[in-house]
Structure formats: C-alpha cells, structure tokens
Amino acid sequence: MKAAPDIAARRLSLILAAERLFADQGLEAVSLSQVNQAAGHRNASAVHYHFGSRDGLVEAVFDHRMGLINPRRLAIMDRLAEEGRLTELRPLVCAWVQPFAEELKPRDEGNYSLRFLERLLRDEPLFIRRNAIKDLGAFWVTGWKVAEALEALLTYLPPQIARMRLKLLRLQVISGLAAIEARGDHEMTDFQIEALIDCLVGGLTAPVSHQAMQALRGGTD
C-alpha cells in the first residue's frame, strides 16, 4: 500500500532538487548524477527511471510549477470577467504577474521556481530546436490569454509596437520576479511586486518615441 506514495515522494524529491540546481547553475550545466545526489538517492539511475532523460526531467519541473500557476491565472481571469474588468490595464497585468508572484511565498525547501523559469525562458530556443519539450507554448498559454486582452487595449499603438511590448512584458515578468526571489527579502516582497507591476504598466503605455518609429521603418525618416 505504501509503494505509490513512496514513488510519488521520490519523484517529487528529484523534481525539487533539479529545480534548485537548474535555477543555480543552468539547465545544461547540471548532471543527472548531481540531481540524484542532491535528492538523496543512492540509485544512480533514479532520474532515468522516473523521467527518462534530462529533457524529461526539465519538462517535469516546469509541469510541476505551471500545474499550480496556470489555474491561479485562470481563476483571476474568471473573476475579472465576472466583475466586468477585462478592459482595465493594471488588473490584467496583475493577472499575468500574481500567479507567478505566489511562488515567492517562503517554502521549507527554499524558493527556486522563478529562477528556474527564467533559465527555461532563456534556453527556450534550445529546447525547441531539440524538440525536447513537445508543446512549450502550452507552458505560457494562460499568460497569452491575458496578452490577448491586453493587446485589445493597445490598438492605438502601431501593431508591431504593441506586439513587441507584450513580448518584453513576458520576459520582464519572469526576470523581475526571479530577481526578487534571488534577493530573498521577504519583508519587502509585496512592495517589490507592486513596483514591478507599475513598471510593466508604464512600459505598455509609454509614448512611442521618434527613435522607435524610425527604427521600425528601417532607419528612414
């Protein structure tokens, strides 16, 4: 009767150990033997048994986190829809940020998920080329649901400008929260999150400069 819970616990210990090591060292720098050792497994093939490969382990780590983050965001979007607030810019930006920001709450095993996600986002082209993660787009799917609502509020901008700002938003959310996680200053976390949201809203709504428009036109005036 204990077999299934024991297997689940061993699998989770590998996921948490890998998340920490990937966050600290990068996805390609960590050996599977390091993960086994950090998780306290004497069986050298534990990762291969549970995940098949390094790429399977990476996928399991982000599935573990996004399995929590995506439902949080959908719940926020449902609430905004019920309240008729899907046309308000800051609440939509919050809907993108807050599900990730929940990962900043202190955990016994430490907080590494946002730095892991930043590493994954940075290495995403590598995983796409290797077809390591079959549907990486699903990883960000609820974020892009928010992006669609935001894009509808930015129709006064040139389309390429709006799309670029949303792509930058995606990067800035993860990198900003990963930096907050790395600082570990829990007393200031709420302030840092709200300040980040302010910056993101400001970036989306900033006036389009002459320089940006000139660059968009290929450098011609």
Automatic annotation (TrEMBL):
Keyword entries, A-Z: DNA-binding
Note the Gene3D superfamilies from the entry: Tetracycline Repressor, domain 2 (1.10.357.10)
Name the Gene Ontology molecular function terms of this record.
DNA binding
User: What InterPro entries does the record tag this protein with?
Assistant: Homeodomain-like_sf, HTH_TetR
Q: What is this protein called?
A: TetR/AcrR family transcriptional regulator
DNA-binding as a keyword?
A: yes
**Where, by residue number, does the polypeptide cross the bilayer?**
none
Q: Which organism is it from?
A: Rhizorhabdus dicambivorans
SUPFAM superfamilies in alphabetical order: Homeodomain-like
Q: Which residues form the HTH tetR-type domain?
A: 15-61
